[in-house]
Amino acid sequence: MELKVYSDKHEVAEQFSAYLVDKLGTGKTFHVALSGGSTPKIVFDVLAENFSDKVDWSKVHFYWGDERCVPPTDDESNYKMTVGHLFSKIEVPKENIHRVLGEKDPETGAMRYANLLEINLDRVEDVPQFDLVILGMGDDGHTASIFPHQIDLWNAEDHCVVATHPESGQKRVSINGKVINSAKEVAFLVTGASKAEKVKAVVEKTEGSEVYPATLVDPKSGNLVWFLDKDAAADLNPSPS
């Protein structure tokens, strides 16, 4: 595990963008699972503004680690956010964008997406392997859309699962823990003081932290990087400089 701590979420976004572009610069086809949320939104803005003409986007295939079961025109759609902040501003072939069909029946959408991953990605021990999975973490310690009250979905047999938000009841399609931990690299993007308590619990594996799905992120490759701002890292002991 590698911890990278920056002054604020804008610096996190800038540094993560540079890290990602370095990964994309090999010239090989690259399969990445995106995350939703406020920090990825800034990352997409940085990528569009600073790197639109510095990456061969035809080599990059985009997926989502999770998606809300809403139409692609809905403001809650991770896909819609990514289109607005990135895809509309770069030259990326439409066939390289592999969205979850959130407007479909959730179970059907999850099954379809699992099949898509199995077809498009190399597999390791029958599990689809991304080059990079980008994750966020909620104030409750959830990641992707695996929530504490449904932590058993982490090891589900199906590569994509239907999750239920604990408060709104909204259905979501999410990759499971096996897919996350089979990735060649996993990167957490976590910012804000509201995340500090769970960052400490997950990173330091404090007593009781096993109830948080984010603690289960442990890629077989050993390549796990946390991009944090100072607020999110504030409770770590000793606090990284």
List keywords for this structure.
241 residues; globular; alpha/beta
Write up this protein.
By secondary structure, this protein is an alpha/beta fold. The protein has a single domain (2-229), classed as Rossmann fold. 28% of the residues lie in helices and 20% in strands. The protein contains six helices and eleven strands. It has helices at 9-24, 38-51, 78-85, 106-120, 177-182, 196-204, and strands spanning 2-6, 30-34, 60-64, 66-68, 123-124, 127-128, 132-135, 160-164, 171-175, 186-190, 224-229. Strands 1-11-10-7-2-3 form a six-stranded parallel β-sheet, covered by helices on one side. Strands 4-9-8 form a three-stranded antiparallel β-sheet. It has a two-stranded antiparallel sheet with strand order 5-6. Helix 6 (196-204) links the parallel strand 10 (186-190) and strand 11 (224-229). Helix 1 packs across helix 2. The longest helix has 16 residues, at 9-24. It is globular. It starts with a strand and ends in a 12-residue tail after the last strand. The relative contact order is 0.18. The model has no long low-confidence stretch (mean pLDDT 96).
